[in-house]
Amino acid sequence: MVFTIKRRPTSQVMVGNIGIGSDYPIRVQSMTNTNTEDVAATVAQIIELADAGSELVRVTVNTELAAKAVPHIVEQLRATGYETPIVGDFHFNGHRLLQAEPECAKALAKLRINPGNVGRGARKDEQFSAIVEEALKHQKPVRIGVNWGSLDPEVLKRLWDENLKKTIPLSNDELMCEAMIVSALESIAFAKEIGMTDEDIILSVKVSQSQQLIKVYRDIAPLTQVPLHLGLTEAGMGMKGTVASTAALAVLLQEGIGDTIRISLTPEPNASRTEEVLVGKEILQSLQIRAFTPKVVACPGCGRTSSDDFQHLAQDIQSYIDNNMPTWKTQYEGVEKMVVAVMGCIVNGPGESKMANIGISLPGNGERPVAPVYIDGERSVTLKGEQIAQEFKQIINEYINEKYRKQ
Hints:
Sulfite Reductase Hemoprotein, domain 1, NO2/SO3_Rdtase_4Fe4S_sf, alpha/beta, 4-hydroxy-3-methylbut-2-enyl-diphosphate synthase activity (flavodoxin), elongated, 4 iron, 4 sulfur cluster binding, 4Fe-4S, eight-stranded parallel β-sheet, IspG_C, TIM Barrel, five-stranded mixed β-sheet
């Protein structure tokens, strides 16, 4: 069962064929790290990310050659059957690139603008306006993405001067969060003056520390109706980045804040970019907000489970599900919501197995060498011997075929 969290009401924004906002699922997205000028490499990575579950993919558009490459990237993706919306990431020279290469804007599903990197002084409003006008001309939404690391210096200086005059001034962190919110809201207001509506805008206010991220999104959520994109920017590598992102996003998502997410992990050298997509999906699935693949519940083991049989079986079943899910999701409706329990002893084994769709409780130390299987809360069969894994997989197959087959 998918747990329902009451999300804050927002406007609805269409990004290509993907809807974003409170009436739509919380979307998982990612970004390529290839050179966008390299069409083949970028297409290959977008396909890899889409296959992993990224529902939108952002690409860097930083040079004229990159802007020229975008239509070819999208054309090749569509020719291979991928409808994944492609988002263009613009900094510093986006206004020039979009005006020089109108086919780039036509091919993209959304444009990302960073108010802190759009220009300085008198050119700031002019260049921001130029990008918004290109978006309007081609009927594309924008994401206004304010970042802690590239905050609009004019907004920051203005608030800094005001803060110095306060009886009780804000701390540096509080001031930075306030400056991000002011920059975001002023940018939204300016985009609306040019002609955009709430149905054209998505907003992000990203920082690299979990507590600050929670604060800034909590503060801005009541102040705007546009959908919010969540992400801990520069989260870091591996476990550190995964834990930091999860700690922040889980709090916000549980409070109903957030309409689309990205987990900005630093990949290890030459490693796949897909890890951040898998982490994003797992956060949503662990919170029971969305279901992407059957969940395998397995105990951590203790002194009762000196045998590692249950660990091997849990690993085997998880791999079996992962390998078969691409086929199952086309043939079986709702299979992604299935829960499979692989337990290691009698303490919690039968109970967890009964609460799962299908569960097996392997024997612990001193227990009879048998493994009862439970289906929808009822004991079904008892397995033993050397073929438990194969027999359990067959039970899973039969259950899926009976319960989830599309009518």
